[in-house]
From TrEMBL:
It comes from Solihabitans fulvus. Signal peptide: none annotated. Coiled coil: none annotated. It comes from the Bacteria. Keywords: FAD, Flavoprotein, Oxidoreductase. One of its GO terms (molecular function) is flavin adenine dinucleotide binding. The keyword Oxidoreductase applies. This is Acyl-CoA dehydrogenase. The keyword Flavoprotein applies.
């Protein structure tokens, strides 16, 4: 069995042709603005990866998805990061369909059958904000919600078909407010996209600024939840966080694995050094897979979210140890003869910038281990 074979088999099963297509494109082309990787993902059925088969999707489990994301990350970190945001939005819809009696299944089926890409307008990227904390304001009208707000950075900003976001809306039949998820067509009047991402690293993820000014969203694209604003973590938020942390961690682990893969075939590097690095990566992947195997049975439990966060930070530390050593063992000639090694060594650092930051979560996780409810800082 070859290194990453299990992950590439999963990719070929659920997204046939994608891995080969990405392998045939130079990394420098996949990682630049306007990357062809996103369209390849769309053509291979990527948007429907998590959608259940009964809703015309690929029906990938959490374990399958973690493996697919690692395979994609090993070919194109930008594509893996960008598509994680699509999957996060999709997973939120799936959870909503399981805990409500609404029309979410129709939306999922439409996304899967037409390969539509969802950009995420949730709070990822805002300091001290929960991923599902609303970033947009909503005003109710007779014909729909008028949405305004800014999301920066927002992956898939140039290729999205729809933007998902959370808003607080008045309840229909009783006093009070509730959380709702809105799906906003990308061609809606009032949406503008402006440059934001200035780094060369992960430039292919299309992480620019999206601004909404009084954008009308019809009520048939508004998915109401039973979650009151300001409440502690609920099932939807827990499941969303678990999916996000799993897939984002697997994406960056894939990028680190791309360096290890280059090292495996390098003559003159002692087998003990190569196996030490691969062993650390495989141990980190085993941690992600352990969490993934517990979904969906425990996917809405605080215990699994806590375990997932511990694993995510462990993956982060593994990458921090493995990547510099892999670059050193690849040697100066490998570093100088191609930009790929330097690029991958830079791109893998992105995992530490995704929420929730470890220093923000330290007190909350310590409190949880002492019997307190888990909160996200």
């Amino acid at each position: 069995m070859q290194f990453l074979e299990r992950e590439r088999l999963a990719s070929n099963k659920f997204l046939p042709g994608l891995d080969k297509a990405l392998a045939d494109i130079p990394l420098s082309e996949l990682e630049r603005p306007g990357s062809p990787g996103i369209e390849q993902f769309r053509q291979c059925g990527g948007p429907g990866l998590l959608v259940p088969e009964r809703n015309s999707g690929a029906g990938a489990s959490a374990l399958d998805a973690v493996r697919v994301q690692r395979a994609i990350g090993a070919r194109s970190p930008s594509l893996a990061v960008a598509t994680t945001m699509h999957h996060f939005s999709m997973a939120s819809l799936i959870v909503l369909s399981e805990i409500s009696n609404g029309f979410e299944w129709m939306l999922m089926e439409g996304i899967a059958t037409t390969s539509k890409l969802l950009a995420s307008g949730f709070a990822e990227g805002r300091t001290d904000a929960s991923i599902l904390e609303p970033t947009m304001t909503a005003v109710a009208t007779d014909t729909g919600l008028r949405i305004s707000g800014v999301k920066k950075p927002c992956s898939l900003s140039r290729s999205m078909d729809m933007l998902t976001a959370s808003v607080i809306v008045p309840r229909k039949d009783e006093p009070g407010e509730q959380l709702a998820v809105v799906l906003i067509p990308a061609d809606s009047p009032g949406i503008t996209i402006t440059p934001f991402w200035g780094s060369f690293a992960l430039a292919g993820a299309e992480s620019d600024q999206i601004t909404l000014e009084d954008v009308l969203v019809p009520y048939e694209l508004v998915v109401r939840t039973e979650v009151p604003p300001g409440q502690r973590l609920d099932e939807l938020q827990i499941a969303g966080f678990v999916w996000f942390e799993l897939l984002m961690s697997a994406s960056y682990l894939g990028a680190a694995s791309a360096l290890a893969e280059r090292l495996l075939g390098k003559a003159g590097v002692p087998a003990t050094d190569r196996m030490r690095l691969v062993g650390e990566l495989e141990a980190a992947m085993a941690g992600l897979e352990n969490v993934a195997r517990q979904m969906p049975a425990a996917g809405r439990d605080q215990q699994l979210l806590a375990d997932c966060l511990f694993v995510r930070y462990a993956v982060q530390d593994t990458i921090g140890r493995v990547v510099p050593r892999a670059v050193e063992l690849l040697g100066g000639l490998g570093f100088m003869s191609s930009d790929d090694v330097a690029y991958l060594a830079t791109a893998v650092n992105g995992l530490g910038f995704h929420p929730p930051a470890r220093n923000k979560m330290a007190d909350q996780l310590a409190g949880y281990l002492l019997g307190q409810p888990l909160a996200i800082a």
